[in-house]
Design goal:
By secondary structure, the protein is an alpha+beta fold. It has one domain (18-80). The protein has helices at residues 18-24, 46-64, 68-80; strands spanning 32-37, 40-45. It has a two-stranded antiparallel ribbon.
Length: 81
């Protein structure tokens, strides 16, 4: 694990090192969620949150027993209505 020292400026602003952003896979326009637990902060890219949500949806779908072809048929029928 690599550590970085980040200064907090007078207006409570800071700059996140580009190496950190690269490791997180984020760039200009992306968002970061910061979670605080005790005296530790964790940065989570919003992209990762979306991927975690997608994995949760896929898990629920897989455990439902509904086949993808059945779901697609229902979607197609609802569009035709």
């Amino acid at each position: 694990m690599t550590s970085y020292l980040i200064d907090i400026r007078q207006r409570r602003q800071t700059t996140i090192p580009s190496a950190v952003l690269t490791q997180l896979g984020v760039g200009v326009g992306d968002s970061l969620e910061i979670s605080v637990s005790g005296n530790k902060a964790t940065l989570i890219p919003q992209k990762q949150i979306a991927l975690n949500a997608l994995q949760e949806i896929q898990s629920v779908f897989a455990s439902s027993g509904v086949k993808e072809s059945e779901m697609q048929k229902l979607v197609d029928e609802s569009r035709d209505s």
